[in-house]
Design a protein that fits this description.
alpha/beta; Alkaline Phosphatase, subunit A; 2 domains
Length: 657
């Protein structure tokens, strides 16, 4: 059948030029949106525990997808429809008008297809549909483009874009060409106007997505099952992207207002056991160890890119991906219930070094006011330490260099400091080269006679992947191989470090910036937040210990200070996990926030709705009704902590001279 002609069942539309044309484009657009959704579905099959048992939910997810596709198609087609309607009612048909509308529609849907193509790798990385937060990377657009070009795993998804856009162009052109050939049927102007208004009303209903008067279609409308992947599958990424964009324009989304700040401050002080309250600095606590150590050990923090706890054998992984980290965990202080604050690297760096949580889309290191915090760098600098940060790539990415320079890091080593030929991808040098380069740097720091803080940020475990030819992995999958390589790189670093004079008096800390989503999960992926935390210092911590208490990246810095046995001012939301305990820890997933306890996992969505799970046994049952007090207590804990951090920043109470 000619795609530009009406089938027999639609012959009643003959002569209604504007309506018939737009209806055919609706059908065409929904078909091509379906192609992208199908690709996302096929690349995410591992998120579904059994296809046959989930068929009804899979079907409903695709049906829901049609609803969201109609919403987006309506937004894109309403202006073309109005233009066509004006000339239709006037009884005029101009080739230039049809051509202009054709070009407009093609451009609009091409942009929509770009978003759909980009959404697939984005979702597979973050387990979240595309939002405006993706552009937090675009303060370094050249860097991001290079990273995409160099990693086939990213740009391969643009093959479907071209496969979709080219036939869409041809079919759209045929639709317009045949529409112009249709004979003009004379009808009353009032009849044309009436039916055009009725059809416009239908378009507006489609755009609204629901007939219910209370609220139009929302992201939450797609959540129709207990499977987090299928719930998101029904969404159209153009919808989530535009929604986040308009929310981002709303100033209320820049500064959170989750709970009364005075109440929040009093509760957080209670959570942290602050008895002697400083009226100006609400988190102020002076920490004086029982016995102050005359020795000041060096501190080395290795923030590992995407090193989820689930990649380790001790957490059930059977592929032997991290033999060295597993061996370290057996001979160290190992904290097995630690969670990252957010899902981005900047969240991991900030929360680990400065002990504050993540707040939705806020990027604290990129703020124009460039705040200074009482982070571990400032505290150790006051104790006579030198402070160095080392990464593999561009120091401008995430504003790392500017922010850390402001926050008492004496030296920041980035891609610019390495020989140019050693940079293998946009992410700079491989991890093992960064570690090799660092040994002479640390020897020089030691020779100065001062104790040192050195913080590393690895990157090899992030695309674009590069595995040096001298490393021979055991697994076949590139994503498994790169984990093996990352683990091996750390092993080489520790072998080299063990030969140096400063090794015996150094505390090594290993934590991830975030994990990675790989399989079936809740709406907030626990795998993305669960990180190993290892304190290794054979001469300083001779007995290995396992700590089962709940904690987070925000507790790393205070726990380090506890091991160092030095007096300091804790002006953060972190605690010393060796001596203290917390009931819950907060995690943040751009729009949702979660609260994790020993037994329960609470997820709160932007509309305030929430679910309470017993996550230890991977239960998908919502226990909110059975345990309303626990749900309320956990939610209040998160809202108070997040609101206090907002207060600290807004009122500049984050740094004490």
């Amino acid at each position: 059948m000619d795609s530009g002609k009406l089938p027999d069942k639609l012959k009643f539309l003959k002569g209604w030029d504007n309506i018939a044309l737009i209806l055919k484009i609706y059908a065409l657009a929904i078909l091509f949106f379906f192609v992208f959704r199908l690709i996302l579905f096929l690349t995410g099959l591992e998120n579904i525990n059994g296809i046959s048992s989930n068929l009804p939910d899979i079907f409903n997810a695709f049906v829901m997808g049609v609803r969201f596709d109609i919403v987006i198609s309506g937004y894109l087609l309403i202006l073309p429809f109005l233009i066509l309607t004006v000339f239709y009612i006037a009884g005029k048909r101009y080739h230039v008008v049809y051509q202009s509308v054709f070009i407009l529609i093609f451009i609009l849907f091409t942009l929509a297809f770009v978003i759909n193509a980009s959404d697939i790798p984005y979702f597979n990385q973050f387990f979240s549909r595309l939002t405006i937060s993706a552009f937090q990377w675009f303060d370094s657009p050249v860097f991001v483009m290079k990273m995409i070009v160099e990693e086939p795993g990213y740009w391969i998804y643009f093959i479907p874009f071209f496969l979709v856009t080219i036939p869409f162009f041809k079919l759209l052109k045929r639709i317009f060409r045949n529409a112009e050939k249709q004979p003009v049927i004379q009808r009353s102007i009032w009849l044309k106007l009436t039916f055009s208004i009725l059809f416009l009303g239908l378009m507006l209903v489609g755009i609204r997505g629901r007939v219910a008067l209370k609220t139009p279609i929302k992201v939450g409308t797609a959540y129709i099952s207990d499977n987090a992947f299928l719930n998101q599958l029904g969404l159209n990424p153009v919808f989530t992207f535009l929604q986040s964009y308009f929310e981002n324009l709303d100033q209320r989304n820049e500064v959170i207002e989750l709970i009364d700040e005075n109440y929040a401050i009093s509760k957080v002080q209670e959570y942290l056991g602050i008895d002697s309250v400083n009226t100006y600095y609400p988190l102020y606590r002076q920490v004086i160890p029982d016995s102050i150590s005359e020795n000041k050990p060096n501190v080395v923090i290795v923030i590992m890119e995407s090193m989820a706890a689930s990649k380790m054998k001790r957490n059930g992984n059977k592929l032997n991906l991290t033999p060295f980290l597993d061996s370290l965990a057996m001979n160290s202080y190992y904290f097995d219930s630690i969670y990252t604050a957010g899902i981005h690297t900047y969240n991991g760096v900030f929360s680990t070094l400065f002990s504050y949580p993540a707040i939705f889309r806020q990027q604290p290191m990129r703020e124009s006011r460039m705040l200074k915090y009482n982070g571990i760098s400032s505290t150790l600098k006051k104790l006579g330490y030198s402070t160095t940060y080392i990464t593999t790539h561009d120091g401008q990415f995430d504003n790392i260099q500017g922010f850390l320079s402001t926050n008492d890091f004496d030296q920041i080593i980035t891609e610019d400091d390495y020989p140019s030929e050693e940079a293998k991808t946009t992410l700079g040098v491989p991890d093992d080269y960064m570690f090799r380069y660092s040994i002479p740097v640390m020897n020089k720091l030691h020779a100065s006679g001062k104790p040192f803080l050195v913080s590393f940020m690895t990157s090899s475990n992030h695309g674009p992947y590069h595995i040096p030819e001298y490393f021979k992995p055991e697994n076949d999958n590139i994503k498994d191989q790169i984990i093996e390589y990352s683990d091996w790189s750390i092993q080489q670093f520790m072998k080299m470090a063990s030969k140096e004079a400063w090794f015996s008096n150094t505390l090594f800390v290993f934590v991830a910036d975030h994990g990675i989503h790989k399989k079936f999960s809740y709406d907030i992926s626990l795998e993305y937040h669960h990180t190993p935390l290892i304190f290794y210092a054979p001469d300083l911590l001779p007995e290995s210990r396992i700590f089962n208490g709940i904690g987070g990246q925000i507790d790393v810095y205070p726990t380090i200070m506890g091991v160092l046995k030095q007096p300091w001012i804790n002006n953060t939301q972190g605690i010393d996990l060796v001596k203290e305990s917390r009931p819950y820890i907060m995690v943040n997933s751009i729009t949702n926030y979660g609260v994790i306890g020993k037994e329960f996992f609470l997820i709160v969505k932007p509309d305030g709705s929430s679910k309470l799970y017993k996550y230890r046994n991977k239960s998908m049952r919502d226990y909110s009704k059975q345990f309303p007090d626990i749900k309320m207590q956990m939610d209040e804990y998160a809202r108070c902590n997040l609101q206090v951090f907002q207060y600290i920043n807004d009122n500049r109470r984050q740094y004490i001279e």
